[in-house]
Amino acid sequence: GGLRRGETKKTPPTFLPVGVKKYKPTTPGFRHRVITSRIGLWQGKPYDPLVRGKKRIDGRNNSGRICVWGRGGGHKRKRRVVDFKRKAHWGVDGRIVRFEYDPNRSAHIALVRYDTEGVDDPTSREWLLSPLPGQSQVAYILAAHGMEEGQVVQQGPDASLDVGNAMPLRCIPMGTTIHNIELVPGRGAAMARSAGTSATLLRTSKDDYVMIRLTSGEVRLIHENSMATIGTVSNGQHKQVNHGKAGARRWLGWRPQTRGVAMNPVDHPHGGGEGKTSGGRPSVSPWGKPSKGGLTRKRRGNIANPFIVKGRPRGKKHQFKTRVP
């Protein structure tokens, strides 16, 4: 269909959905079910040239053996090609056509068209809903909170400090909220991509590196040429989702998880014993690693990563020493 969810011909919403939808308890599965609102999202199919097939892994490695438990089944999905580098249309203004649901991530995505040259009124709804151009003039990007349909999207060092615009970190002032951050320049964004996440720029460029603070509390250094996007990732209410029943988890590809104490000794360190037991030892993973706060990572000196200025808050005995840059 050509309308968004909840859209009518009289009052078409052109904004990102905000809030949650709570179901009435007409069935036991609906009693506690809560999902994020999808009013305003595109109801039709995704833009076909930017869609790829997605092979199911189901927790298996390249030899076909299960190496991750509790995965499998679920609804069939297709992968949307999202532009995490934001360099294909460097210095070119784009317009947001619509917002879409992506089953492969918690955030929403936005479809942007860059064929604005020669258009009399690129803000008109008629032009936005006109047939889309070729793949080279259209891209999917992560939708930021506060974006609107028809909004101008820029990428480059001269871009304005508006929500959704991407630029190198050296061009962003101190104290700005950012997301979609590259760890290595040119490799594509790797941090702050999930729904509702963001980071704060604490210090501008010094010795080719800037300092940012992540939502986890970690403070780290990133190269000044790495790209970042202004604002916070959309769909911040994702953390309030309550599936309501086990079947909803199955739709997402999760299978039931068997407790270790219910297994045999050959299958899990907590297995075996006569009758019901508590495992007989501190909680560990199936491979013997502590699973209740113990250290599982080898230390390289006193700090795991030279770019981490301050580790995320942990228990007192697990806190790494703070490095002064």
Question: How would you sum up this structure, described in words?
Answer:
This protein is mainly beta. The chain is built from 2 helices and 17 strands. The protein has helices at 125-128, 246-251; strands at 20-22, 34-36, 51-53, 78-80, 94-100, 109-113, 138-142, 152-153, 166-168, 177-179, 181-182, 189-191, 199-206, 209-214, 219-223, 227-230, 308-310. The strands form 5 sheets. Strands 9-16-10-13-14-15-17 form a 7-stranded antiparallel β-sheet, with no helix packed on it. Strands 7-6-5-8 form a 4-stranded antiparallel β-sheet, with no helix packed on it. The protein has a two-stranded antiparallel sheet with strand order 1-2. A hairpin with a 6-residue loop joins strand 11 (181-182) and strand 12. The longest helix has 6 residues, at 246-251.
Can I get a quick summary?
This protein is mostly beta strands and 325 residues long. The chain is 3% helix and 21% strand.
Low-confidence stretches: none
Strand order of the largest sheet: 9-16-10-13-14-15-17
Largest sheet: 7 strands, antiparallel
- Radius of gyration from CA coordinates: 23 Å
Structural class: mainly beta
Strand content: 15-25%
